[in-house]
């Protein structure tokens, strides 16, 4: 069973850390455009769901989600609000350092946004160097395999799931009321030759911010993708806890 830090008292959190492996889980999301049919919090909602399930399965303390991330390349779409990479790193490092005083003995970050990958890896490196609390960041292990199995539409670009079948399915599974099926559109932009190599803004070649086709999205697919991601993440965290268990 998990404890949600935001909904409980300090004594409840302290007791839970003391009685368990002392794992704290932080969902790290983004406020980022996901086309005209999905909410700006898509990545935050997804990370929160994965983190909450993991916290339940691993008796962890679930921290409130970070609702902003590094999403500079979506700056051309209003509503998107981005942090700099250094800020993302600093937030994660500060939270990790602070958790030590709470009695936490392991720190896992569930990352929901592509732009957070490099800065969160840097944060985990800093924390592990300091040796006060073992830290790990999860970039949805298991999701790519599930997507390869379940996806019916053609991806707009290899490895890119953005506001198309995959992300629409996930939000249909988590919070269907936030999805606007009447606004679905299929979009296969012409990518610049150096896409993926050079940091670039997306709006010059994608008017809607959709990359692919949401038409075949379904809640059932979203549930299956989430389940596979949660299972694989749980295994990674089990190994992480075992490797860092103090005798
Ligand atoms: Zn997303």
Please estimate the helix content: 40-55%
Helix segment count?
7
Order of helices and strands: EHEHEHEHEHHH
Structural class: alpha/beta
Over all CA atoms, what is the radius of gyration? Answer: 18 Å
Total domains: 1
Number of strands: 5
Order of strands in the sheet with most strands: 1-3-2-4-5
CATH topology group: Rossmann fold
| Overall average pLDDT | 97
CATH architecture: 3-Layer(aba) Sandwich
- Our measurement of the CA-to-CA distance between the termini, rounded to an integer number of angstroms, reads 23 Å
Concise description?
This protein is α/β, with parallel strands linked by helices and 247 residues long. It contains seven helices and five strands, in the order E-H-E-H-E-H-E-H-E-H-H-H. The mean pLDDT is 97.
Model description:
This protein is an alpha/beta fold and 247 residues long. It has a single domain, classed as 3-Layer(aba) Sandwich (Rossmann fold), CATH 3.40.50.10310. The chain contains seven helices and five strands. The longest helix has 26 residues. It is globular. The chain binds zinc ion. The site of zinc ion has 5 residues, from α2. The site of zinc ion (ZN) has 5 residues, from α2.
Helix and strand arrangement:
Elements: E1 3-4, H1 10-19, E2 23-28, H2 42-57, E3 61-62, H3 85-100, E4 106-111, H4 117-130, E5 135-138, H5 143-150, H6 165-174, H7 219-244
Parallel strand pairs: 1-3, 2-3, 2-4, 4-5
Zinc ion binds next to helix 2.
